[in-house]
Write a structure and sequence with these properties.
Blueprint: E1 2-6, E2 12-16, E3 40-42, H1 63-73, E4 83-84, H2 90-93, H3 99-104, H4 108-115, H5 125-153, E5 155-158, H6 179-190, E6 197-201, H7 208-213, E7 220-227, H8 235-238, E8 241-247, H9 253-270, E9 275-279, H10 297-312, E10 318-321, H11 330-343
Parallel strand pairs: 3-4, 3-5, 5-10, 6-7, 6-9, 7-8, 9-10
Antiparallel strand pairs: 1-2
């Protein structure tokens, strides 16, 4: 028998008391959040600092804190109006991950391979857990929390997350936990009325983790726009992509934005999902050492606006995660993009009071002069 209850945040929850033991486990991640807080999730624990070892990977392991600092400087967020992320527990992680995979993370050598930081293999696992995996588990918890918030508020942003190379039984590419898969599975399990999801993955790399998790699952529609010449080139995962948009080396703004708009509109016209998970990687930026594309800061901001305008204009909830980005200026670009979404009325405090975003086709505020390009 299915028992449905609406929590204080307005989300209809579902609990299954079947003999098959399908009742979802107890979790602290689906907390009720006061309307005084924006659906923007963050915690200082996100940022990885560990004896300088984080600098051995091109990923800026402190970019999330920089994004928040820039947003605070523009007086858009404060510590009081953001939602503090909670760490995903082992039971939370088991919603998507196998026990054997989670156990493997107790070996420092395995974590060193996943994060691509070789010296970690020589450190006691207790340190690796506390200084590397705990921040990633907290970001993962943040994505799960933001999924619920997106349903309640119409939009949500996790300042971290987007670990799209991790699947339920394998990590890689600095991705140790499958936060996108987890957020969707939590919603399917726990929130009444959420039965379909669309993943729009615009990171420069193929999102092979969530793709492997949802191969053959018709509830999840995956659109992936990526440089087909770089990691991971995962043919098995590619079977899950229902709108596959492969880019060549050095793709620039005009072609990129045209394809993003064309295919985003096409995907949403083809299937209206109950939620969109938007993986907004900034490694498409010109000069990124791993992405191989040539998108300007203004192009990234315009891209995010295209996606939000298409999704919000249809009244579909959207969860955004920040994913990859390997240059120091990416934090500034992410912050500027979030500010632009606010200026366009696509996100912001007023959304909680029921106001609508500007209609599709209204004038964009994105301009060269309005974008910061240095930190």
């Amino acid at each position: 028998m299915e028992d449905q209850t609406r929590n204080a945040g307005g989300t209809m929850s579902k609990e299954q008391d079947t003999e098959g033991g399908k009742r979802p486990h107890d979790t602290e991640l689906y907390v009720d959040v006061p309307r005084t807080r924006l659906p923007i999730v963050y915690h200082p624990i996100y940022n990885i600092t560990f004896m300088g070892m984080e600098k051995l990977h091109p990923f800026d392991a402190g970019k999330w804190g920089k994004v928040v600092r820039f947003l605070k400087e523009e007086q858009f967020v404060t510590d009081e109006n953001m939602v503090p992320a909670l760490e995903a527990s082992e039971e939370d992680l088991k919603v998507a991950h196998t026990k054997s995979y989670l156990s493997s993370l107790k070996w420092s050598a395995i974590v060193a391979g996943i994060t691509e930081i070789p010296p970690l293999m020589f450190l006691p696992n207790c340190l690796v857990q506390r200084r590397v995996l705990r921040p990633l588990r907290t970001q993962t918890g943040g994505t799960i929390m933001a999924g619920k918030l997106a349903i309640e508020r119409g939009w949500a942003i996790n300042i971290g997350g987007g670990f799209h190379h991790c699947s339920g039984d394998e990590g890689g590419g600095f991705c140790a936990y499958a936060d996108i898969t987890l957020a969707i599975k939590f919603l399917f399990e726990r929130v009444e009325g959420v039965a379909t999801a669309t993943i729009i993955d615009l990171d420069a790399h193929q999102g092979n983790g969530h793709e492997r998790d949802f191969v053959g699952d018709r509830r999840v529609f995956i659109m992936d726009v990526y440089n087909c010449h770089i990691y991971p080139r995962d043919r098995i995962a590619k079977r899950a992509i229902r709108r596959n948009v492969e880019l060549d080396w050095g793709t620039q703004d005009a072609e990129y934005l045209r394809k993003v708009e064309l295919h985003t509109e096409g995907v949403l016209n083809e299937m209206r999902p109950d939620i969109v998970v938007y993986n907004a990687g900034t490694d498409v930026l010109d000069g990124d050492p791993l992405g191989g594309l040539a998108i300007s800061p203004q192009g990234i901001i315009a891209r995010d606006e295209i996606v939000f305008r298409a999704v919000r204009g249809r009244g579909i909830p959207i969860l955004m995660v920040t994913s990859g980005g390997y240059q120091k200026m990416t934090a500034r670009i992410i912050a500027d993009s979030i500010l632009n979404l606010h200026h366009q009325g696509l996100i912001g405090p007023e959304e909680g009071e029921g106001s609508s975003p500007k209609p599709i086709g209204s004038e964009s505020s994105v301009s060269v002069s309005s974008v910061h390009t240095s930190v």
